[in-house]
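Input chain follows. Return structure tokens only.
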Amino acid sequence: MTQQPFMGRGAIDLSALKRPAPQQAPGAPSAEGGGGMAGAAGSSYAVAVDDQNFQSVLQASTTAPVVLVFHSPSQAPDSSQMAEDVADLVGQYDGRFLAGLIDVDASPQIAQVIAQASQMPQLPVPLLMVFLDGRPAIQPIPGLVSREELSTLFNQLGQQLTAQGITGRHQPLAGGPAEDDADEEPGPDPRYAPAEDALAAGDIDLAVGEFQKLVDANPADAEAAAGLAMAKILQRTQGVDLNQARAAAAAAPDDVDAQIMVADLDLLGGHVEDAFARLVELVRRTSDKDRDRAREHLVSLFAAVGNEDPRVLKGRQALASALF
């Protein structure tokens, strides 16, 4: 059984927080202007979070990922700019993400609940967390993150969502610019629908074929290329036992097939740098056709992760060093 790239520790206990008003549906704006889900920072996919609407924001992660940004104008003024960057960037993904902006000065109780659930003595600020199905989807990211790094993160998460068949999207929130002209409201790109539907149905072979059509039609389509690369990894690793694969690779360190299989499983499990390092070392040890296979496969993993990812840039440098 393959590992999944999204991993969480468990649902967050919200019992210490206020419940939203019973008549207020998730996503509906509050009549009093607070506790609702109106767009924040000029984005249709961002919301200012407080004690009253936190539960409904977290509940929205059952549809698609929710990105929480904890910031503090008093403790870390630059963190508020990071929150604004996240709000702006998620708007470019047509509902794949919802940003929840939490001012810990105004809502310290939320920070306490998250710190306790994450087993942290104190919540660092700023802090970025991604939730899916009410659970942390990736390890929390503390400290300031540049706009460029945030963009890379969202691109990578978007690729993983596509590869895993997670196709849900948030609806634009009240008060955001998408409501100014409903006719121009962005929606899911229909080109990817057949491949995403195939992944959601567990038909990996069909998904590979659909992504291949997109790449053949437009080789410059980076999202389609990444989707194809990830779908092929899923195809190769179907039904593979991770422990057995690791044992086989350890017993035959120069067996290209065995090393490639573990690298694929590592990448799916979120151990991207380990996957790259394994194949870089394989390139370093092998020669001729074996070396070419290891190199070509590593390049395909670069495509799956995304060429703008800092880990890919480091991986390319390591590959160049191993080759020359």
